[in-house]
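Q: Here's a chain of 238 amino acids. Please give me its 3D structure as tokens.
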Amino acid sequence: MQGASMRCTIRPRIIASLCAAASTLALAQPAGAACRVTDFTDKTLTSLNEAQRLSFVSQMTQTEYDKLRRSQPGSANYHELIAKSANAAAARRAAQSKIADLGVENIDDFRRVWASDFLTDEELRRYTDCVTNRQPGLFIAGRPDGPGKFNISFSHLTPIGVEKITTKLVAAYNVANVKQLEDFLTVLGPRDNYPAQTFALQLIDPGKRAVLVMRAGWETPKFVYIPVYPTADYFKQR
């Protein structure tokens, strides 16, 4: 055998799919590229609440940091934490520390929700598609849509194309319309990949957190911890 050029001759039906998918992804996706929340919204930092601002900063990309670092005091995107940080990594650590100081259970999981829950459903679907295109597999995000309501957006990419993946609900806590979600996923059925879908969850008790566990095929289950809204309440008297 003569190196990599010969590898696609073995088990041609499977390996050809692998090689074609790998080639397509290599051409379409910049290596190590991350999806930037700011590419999907016109909202400014000052328009977000403290939980959303800190959560966004805690996972912002280098290019987002570079852009926001140039913001002047008094401008809509100025944030003192960013302005006083030596670099993007320091800013992310400082934001994570401030959120951790709340001492709330599952706060790091809430942080991942808050970092993008200010997007609209349409913006969230585009963001979700972006993430799963760069990191193949099930990706779930969400946003509040009124008292006791939380819209989840999820998508899945299977770049190999060897088998169809079925997305299922594994478990749920404090979710009232579990049967409707299961029916929604049944209709979606097994697929190689699918663009972002949105489903409106209804919570049993809006005063308690909710938890959702979903899995695509044999992938590791994905947990979504839904915080109690409004998020501003977490920062009262602090």
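Q: Can you summarize the key feature?
A: Residues 1-32 have pLDDT under 50 and may be disordered.
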